[in-house]
Target: TetR/AcrR family transcriptional regulator
Amino acid sequence: MVAIRGARERAREELTHEIKEEARRQLAVEGAQKLSLRAVARELGMASSALYRYFPSRDDLLTALIIDAYNALGSQAEQTDSAVAPRSDTRARWFAVSSTVRAWAKAHPHEYALLYGTPVPGYSAPEQTVAPAARVPLLLVGLLQDTVGRFAIPAPVRPLRGPLADQLADLATRVTPGLPPALLSRGLSAWAQLFGMVSFELFGHFVGSADPADAFFAHTVEEIADFLGLPETP
Model:
């Protein structure tokens, strides 16, 4: 019975993988908005009713693809960060992680677009996507936490005030203990700028200006490192 159960589980895993691979092929051709369970089933030679046993709805399949993409990106970024030595070289770690995000996006443009492109009408990401989505920003937070008490943090040009000060103080308490809210604010800005640059490049917004974007990307990543107060690599 154990052997039979194991064979069934392997078969289910293999078919689940095939379903998601076909869905990714459809993303590349049709885009997320036109993803169809019926079309996936047809391409795999399955009855639609059989596919529904694996993914009850299009949104369930989208969620699986989104989680896989976030985890793939997060895993790549974490592996890159962990390979940088010495660990105290936070500037080199920032550059390595930033370059990895860009490289992954260029190698997987349709999955990147699923995560950071135009939202799919009618789809609302469930809570189970939150932890995978947080892997890269939390990696950046960890990098910034490694600078606290070791390097001089640039004084904020514009102090945090009002609701934003309260919001970031609460976030720092819950998620980034020991990280000054002003530095957390800079980290959020850096995260947004990094993915903004990648999105602009991937979606063709640098054509006619900073295209190819290699030099602009490297220059801006260095500027962001200055903004975060990361010391120059010895």
About this structure: The chain has eleven helices and no strands.
